[in-house]
Structure formats: structure tokens, C-alpha cells
Amino acid sequence: VDAEALDLTELYSRLTADGCDYGPAFRGLVAAWRIGNQRFVQARLPDAMTDTVGTYGLHPALLDAALHGLLATDTASGPALLPFSWSGASLYATGATEIRVHCDSVKHGDGTHLKFLAWDTQGQPILRVETLALRQASAAQVQTTPQNRDLYRLDWQPVALPVEAPSKIGWCLVGNVTLAQILEIQSFASLDALRVALKSGQPAPTRLLLDVTAVAGVDPITAAHQATTESLDALQILLAEPALASTPMIWLTRGAVATVPGEGIPDLGHAPLWGLLRSARAEYPGQILRILDLAPGGTVNECSSALAHDTEPELAWRFGLAYAPRLVIQPDVTLFTPPAGGLDWGLACTDGGGLDHIHVIATPSPALAAHEIWIAVQAAALNFRDVLNAMGMVPAPWLGLEVAGVVTEVGKGVTSLVVGERVMGLGRATFATQAIAEAHQVIPIPDGLSFIDAAGIPLVFLT
Description:
There is one protein chain. By secondary structure, this protein is α+β, with helices and mostly antiparallel strands. The chain contains eleven helices and 22 strands. It has helices at about 10-15, 60-70, 140-145, 175-185, 190-200, 220-240, 270-285, 305, 385-390, 450-455, 460, and strands spanning about 5, 30-35, 40-45, 80-90, 100-110, 110-120, 125-135, 150-160, 170-175, 185-190, 205-210, 250-255, 290-295, 315-320, 320-330, 345-350, 360, 370-380, 400-410, 420-425, 435-440, 440-445. An eight-stranded mixed beta sheet has the order 8-15-14-13-12-11-9-10, sandwiched between helices. Strands 1-2-3-5-6-7-4 form a seven-stranded antiparallel beta sheet. Helix 6 (about 220-240) packs parallel to helix 7 (about 270-285). The longest helix has 20 residues, at about 220-240. The chain is flat. It starts with a strand and ends with a helix. Mean pLDDT is about 85; it is low at about 75.
């Protein structure tokens, strides 16, 4: 009775002013009220989205809409409060398309914390959250957060392994008798042979190795389907075997992952096995499911310590060291910004070799020689020579060789081309808004060919 009704139009205007953009699917607020630090919210899922309710515990659009009323600031100039961390969340029921929420907010030194309970329209509890920590975010912070890059990237980093040689008592390997002889452990030709031995009373192995180091076919698509199907069948058999419930299982691949740029993946067929095991690991958290990738040409007898090391679910053996995947912070990459004033610009690499040295420069407009033309660049192809040039391996005086665009000016000796003509060919410093080209090194673009397609033809044709 004493609650103050919130103006939803004003509320969304306030949230939008803080840099947020809420599409129609997320504008599910029906009503919202406020009494001091308490909030009361009624949210309903749009009709167009109700058929997806069964996919979620609580539909994210419905939960998000409810949070809009809870996160409303008291003043139009105040910063937005955005969810930071959740704790003590309990889901009591699923399938809700409408919820009523009561929330208490408490200010702490590091921000605002919410505690709220959501019911369905019949008064049955849906969701309880003991603590939802909020943090302030100004419009400038939201608008300047880089949305066009990854915040983290995967990096393979060396990890320390025990120096002492592991005990191989009870180890066995399935799939490669020769490899088992090298490791001096027991072997089974197939999973069926292993299961027969277990049923006959043989103790379960203390460690089970599964060898899939053979390249899985020539055609990578067919090989990936076949190898993944076979691996899934084997995995289901192993996980269903009660005797192996406590046995660590380690798959061996060779060249199925790349640990550094340019390394290549010669065995693409077994690359999906890495993702398959990650899924299985999530479904069977009590089972040790590991995978170790050997370098092409590497030998397995030099990495016994990696086979016995169960704290790292994924390892790659390279250069006598074990490497594990780690998420590392992606460094900020300064986006190319054209010079002010509408000047023509291009890419240059004048500070030494390396892709990090590529930058934007304003480009001059020198007078044309008699046999030259100016081209307004519409597309420029990236050739391997440009990469070698930027890396300082095969230096050239400029970046960009191939070009497609429109002639904007011709030298006094040019009679084969006219201003306004669509052309493709070779130019100088073509990663730019305009480029100079020799008239005899460009030709008109055939009708029906786009600028992008045309830019990729010249050097291939000349070669």
C-alpha cells in the first residue's frame, strides 16, 4: 500500500542512458515498486519466447527483466548497478513464464548486495538468492569496454612434473602392442580383450593408456567423424565398466593440437577427441580422464612422468617438456584509427619487422608520372609476401600489392584507362584509401565480378 510505483518508461530510459541496450525480448517488466531499500517486481516473458522455457531452469530473459527493476538507481544521473557475483542461489522449480520478486538491498563498502526471492503466479517459490553483489558502472565504462576482442586467450605453458621415474606396476595399454613393449607395461589388443580379462578375475589396471597416435585418415572431415565415433564408443564402454571406476584413463594422440602459432595439426581427425573428453569429464567428475598429445616424430618413452601426472587433465609433450593449456589475459590491441581531418591513410610497418609494428599513417598525394594512375581502393588482397614483409623476413618498400578499385586520376601518357573505371591489378602500398599503380599493371574488372573477388586474382593470374 505504501509502495512507490516505478515508471517503467523512465526506468528503461535511465538504463539505456547508462550505455545498455535492451531489446524487446528483454523488456519483460510488467510493474515495479519501491519501499525504502525494498523492491517489488513483476516480470513476464514475452509470448514469442515462451516455447523455449523448457530449455532453462529459469529463462535468462525473464531473470534479466526482473533484475532491471531491482537494479534501478535512485537518481537519473547515478551510475548503473550491474551484477558482479552470485552466491547462495537455489532453484526450486522450472518452467516459469511470469515471476514476482521481492528484494532487499544493503549497501556495503565495496558496493550493493541484494537478497531476493522469486515466486510464480500461484505463490510457489521459484528462485532464492542469498547474495547478489552489484558494482557501479558508469556510461563511459560500459561504452568504452572493448567488445570486439577476446578478454582471454588460450596459451600453452610449460608445467613442472615430478623428476623421479614413476612406478608402472599395474599399468596397461590398449591398442598398440609395440608401444606397450617400449613402456614395458601390459597390453591388450582391444577393449574387448581387456573386458574379458577383467571378467576372468584379473585385477583392474592401476592406469589405463589408450593409444590413438595413428593419423586418422587422409580426408580430415571423414577422419574426424570416424575417429570421434570410435572414441565415443570406447569411452562409453570404459565408463560403464564398474571395475574401471577408480582407474585413471589417459588417451595418447600425436599432433592433434597446436601449442604455438604455425605448428600445424597433422592429425585433425583426433582433434575433436579433446573436446569429447572435456564433456565426459564434466559428466563424470569422479573419473580421471586425461589426454596427452605427442609431437609428430616424438617418442612416448621420454614422457613417462607426464603419463603419471594426474593433476593436469590435458598435456602436450614438446621439446622434452610438458605443456598445459592456460587462460591468459589478452593484451589490449590498439585499433587502427584513421588520421583526423579526412586525410588519406594507409598501413605501414616502418619500425622493424613484426606484426605489432603495423600502424596507420597519413599518405601523401604525389603528382603522377605519365604512365601512372590513382586508384580509390575498394579492396586489397593479403598476399603471403605481405606477411613475410611485415615480419621482416622478405623486406619490401611497402605493404600491399594487389588492389581493386576505381580510377580517380590518370597520368598524361595513359590512354588505356579513364577516370571512373573499375580496375584490378598490382599497385604500391595498397592497404590504403588510395594507391598508385602502373597503368600497364591493371586491367578493367569484368562485369559481374565484385571488388573483393577481383582483388584476389592479380598475383594468382600472374603466377
